[in-house]
Design goal:
Order of helices and strands: EEEHEEEHHEEEHEEEEHEHEEEHE
Number of strands: 18
Oligomer: single chain
CATH topology of the largest domain: D-amino Acid Aminotransferase, Chain A, domain 2
Bound molecules: 2-OXO-4-methylpentanoic acid
CATH architecture of the largest domain: Alpha-Beta Barrel
Number of domains: 2
CATH class of the largest domain: Alpha Beta
Structural class: alpha+beta
């Protein structure tokens, strides 16, 4: 597939890099100079290109606008002290992208094509990869339906694109979350395991209601009984109580998070007892009541590790211990960061060096 058509590269003559304040990066508002694009038509991918970052022009009947066939990924690249660019576990994101594509009745993107487009884009925009603490180049691959047709059916044409943004962490400090017992983000048989745009749209209203009450995000529970914890906002959730590090097992209703997996991996490495299983709300509330929930944090590419300071359940705020006492999350965050940035040995062979 990749050999069929070479990636055409049209670099910009007008880099925006000198305008960027790398010390004060907002999340997701500063876009690097270039983007990768390729179109799907007649059952194959055509015309791979890297071009200056620019607006798209779409017919108002473009199918994605009406019926939401749209998926995305979030990945990060880091700059090490030797100036090399390191991509963290790209194989996992590429595989998950194609799992999302299948569920949304979209074509898969051949992994070698995805990886080559991404590596060429990062190579061209390598000066956009920040090198200071907690910063990274956030990578947004996405695909959407482009048929100009408003009948309801899978589109026959698609666009796959990748753009990048230099960013800091998504949440600057700790987050306050509320256990949600009315609305759901995901249900068995639905699309919760896919990174489908519509999942995020559906979560906005319940999240806004919680935000109006002073919480940053929700702790989602299962759609059937609201008895089990699933995710936190746009992140997976991980808890620690004593020597146990535990997280809801991934399922058809929970996203298979790569940050989550990496955190559980290092937890096992440090000797914690790691449990991936169903976690009842009642168990978490009981631990909170007894002061035995020592750590709770969101895990995601954008947020990395987002400490939770407050969990609200049925009108009552439970406070977690202050993060200075968090033996596990602090160690895991520092360890993962130093592996990603090449400051320590990549002991699980997670990085791809560009
Ligand atoms: C990520 O962590 O990459 C995500 O997808 C969250 C995003 C919606 C900001």
């Amino acid at each position: 597939m990749i050999a069929e058509e070479m990636i055409e590269i049209n670099p910009t003559n007008n880099s925006r890099l000198p305008e960027v304040d790398f010390e004060n990066l907002p999340f997701g508002k500063v876009f690097s100079d270039h983007m990768f694009t390729i179109d799907y038509k007649d059952g194959a991918w055509h015309k791979p290109q890297i071009i200056p970052f620019q607006n798209l022009s779409l017919n108002p009947a473009t199918s994605v606008i009406h019926y939401g066939q749209s998926i995305f990924e979030g990945m990060k690249a880091f700059k090490s002290e030797d100036g090399k660019v390191r991509l963290f576990r790209p194989d996992r994101n590429i595989a998950r992208f194609n799992i999302s594509a299948e569920r949304m009745c979209m074509p898969s993107v051949p992994p070698a094509l995805f990886q080559e487009g991404l590596e060429k884009l990062l190579d061209l925009d390598r000066n956009w990869v920040p090198d200071h603490k907690d910063a990274a180049l956030y990578i947004r691959p996405f695909m959407f339906a482009t048929d100009e047709y408003i009948g309801v059916k899978p589109s026959e044409t698609y666009k796959f694109m990748i753009f990048t943004c230099p960013v800091n962490k998504y949440y600057a400090g700790s987050v306050k979350v509320k256990i949600e017992e009315e609305f759901s983000r995901s249900m068995p048989g639905g699309t919760g395991f896919a990174k489908a745009a519509g999942n995020y749209a559906a979560s906005l209203y319940p999240a806004k209601l919680a935000q109006d009450q002073g919480y940053n995000q929700l702790l989602w529970t299962d759609a059937i009984e609201h008895k089990y914890i699933e995710e936190s906002g746009t992140m997976n959730i991980v808890f620690r109580s004593g020597n146990k590090v535990f997280s809801p097992a991934v399922s058809t209703t929970i996203l298979r998070g790569i940050t989550r997996d990496s955190i559980l991996h290092v937890a096992r490495d440090y000797g914690y007892q790691v449990e991936e299983r169903k976690i009842e709300v009642a168990e978490i509330v009981d631990l909170l009541e007894k002061g035995e929930l020592h750590e709770a944090f969101g895990a995601g590419t954008a947020a990395t590790i987002a400490p939770i300071s407050v969990i609200n359940f049925r009108g009552k705020d439970y406070h977690l211990p202050s993060t200075e006492q968090w033996d596990f999350a602090n160690k895991a965050a520092a360890d993962l960061n130093s592996m990603k940035t090449g400051r320590s040995e990549d002991r699980f062979s997670w990085n791809v060096v560009i």
